[in-house]
Design a protein that fits this description.
Layout (H helix, E strand, L loop, with lengths): L1 E5 L7 E4 L9 E10 L2 H7 L14 E2 L4 E8 L11 E4 L2 E3 L5 H4 L10 E2 L11 E5 L4 E2 L6 H4 L5 H12 L5 E5 L3 H12 L3 E6 L2 H9 L4 E4 L5 H7 L3 E6 L4 H10 E9 L11 H6 L3 E4 L5 H12 L7 E5 L3 H10 L5 E5 L2
Parallel strand pairs: 11-12, 11-14, 12-13, 14-15, 15-16, 17-18
Antiparallel strand pairs: 1-2, 1-4, 3-5, 3-9, 3-18, 5-6, 6-10, 7-8
This protein binds nicotinamide-adenine-dinucleotide (NAD) and zinc ion (2 copies).
One zinc ion binds next to loops.
């Protein structure tokens, strides 16, 4: 099969032929139709996150927003047939037995395997995956528009539904792949959404998706400006920029929640005095469970949210990563396969 392969951090992916994977017991072989390009792919390819370096498989096929059709079944798989359309998220496999798994938070499984990090992902024509963890894609959804829901969508859905109540003011900082979906989901949860980004074009997109206001962070005072207007109940950061965290922290109203989702490589730090003075809450969120995924897919199936996607070919995987690095991507880039 054809695949885009990471051999070394910070090196371009090699577009080359690899051996077709074969499904083991309990696995399905998926013929990939679409795979989203997430900013986490850049962090992984660049070796940005030191805490992750030791679990990155090499050589590695990146990609964890995958939708395709089942090409064959390993032994012992029931409930699926060849041709069924399924998706594979960031969380490739969880143990089902550890404490977080038993508590219903499989996204925090201590033994999880991660797609496109510790096992091969979807920048390829095929991949194999445990039948227990692939998720059916509603027929109504186009594969390319469904793929980004498997990371971007499920991540912001879980994060927002844990903290946002109807009528609250929510700032979404970073209107990229995650953020453009966060604006729509926060709107659907009944929040008044303010979009923050460094690109006017992305801010216009956010307004067309339901944000009631937009602030360009390049002015450097977005946080203070929001604070002067009373502050926000929730400041969600969906950007890999440390500056976005600083502004989000400033924008909070008393007892507001900083919702940490974007993952800059640098540490972030806040004044304990300013945290105490406003009784700031800090909440982080990590992708989502199969349940979260089913719920966000249902929301998309009902037409309440929609991914804005642009298409690229597998051969353009390096260009797609460059485009995303440069900040010029509106919505999500999706690689088309097969
Ligand atoms: P993206 O590149 O599509 O979007 C990032 C956006 O941030 C861009 O629109 C960019 O213009 C904007 N931005 C840059 N500087 C900014 C600033 N100072 N203020 C406001 N906005 C700014 O990236 P993405 O794929 O949406 O991913 C975003 C981040 O989320 C990445 O760090 C990624 O690793 C992380 N992520 C986290 C999880 C999780 O489970 N917590 C899951 C997926 C992705
Ligand atoms: Zn991702
Ligand atoms: Zn577990």
């Amino acid at each position: 099969m054809k695949a885009a392969i990471l051999h070394e951090f910070k090196q371009p992916l090699a577009i080359e032929r690899a051996r077709d994977p074969e499904p083991a017991d309990g696995e399905v072989l998926v013929r990939v139709e679409a795979c989203g390009v997430c900013h986490s792919d850049i962090h992984i390819a660049d070796g940005d996150w030191p805490q992750f370096a030791s679990i990155v498989k090499k050589p590695l096929i990146l990609g964890h927003e995958i939708v395709g059709r089942i090409a064959s079944l390993g032994t012992g798989v029931s409930g699926f047939r060849e041709g069924d359309r399924v998706g594979i998220p960031w969380i490739y496999w969880t143990c089902g037995e550890c404490e977080p798994c038993r508590e219903g938070n499989e996204n925090l499984c201590t033994r999880q395997k991660i797609t496109g990090v510790s096992v091969d992902g979807g920048f390829a024509e095929f991949l194999r995956a445990p039948a227990s963890h692939v998720v059916r894609v509603p027929e109504k959804l186009d594969s390319a528009e469904a793929a980004p829901l498997f990371c971007a969508g499920v991540t912001v859905f879980r994060a927002l539904r844990q903290v946002v109540s109807r009528g609250q003011r929510v700032a979404v900082s970073g209107i990229g792949g995650l953020g453009h979906l966060a604006v729509q989901i926060a709107r659907e949860l009944g929040a008044e959404v303010v979009a923050v980004d460094v690109s006017d074009e992305k801010l216009s997109t956010a307004q067309s998706l339901g944000a009631v206001a937009a602030l360009n962070a390049q002015s450097g005072d977005a946080g203070q400006r929001l604070r002067k207007q009373g502050g926000v109940h929730v400041a969600m950061v969906t950007s890999a920029s440390k500056a976005a965290y600083d502004a989000a922290f400033q924008s909070l109203r008393p007892a507001g929640t900083l919702l940490a989702v974007g993952l800059p490589a640098e540490n972030i730090c806040f004044s304990p005095l300013m945290m105490a003075a406003r009784e700031v809450r800090i909440r982080a969120s990590a992708v989502g469970t199969r349940r979260d995924l089913a719920d966000v897919l249902a929301m998309a199936e009902a037409g309440r949210i929609r991914c804005q996607v642009s298409h690229r070919e597998l051969e353009q995987a390096n260009d797609a990563l460059m485009e995303l690095r440069s900040g010029s991507v509106l919505g999500r880039l999706v690689l088309n396969l097969n």
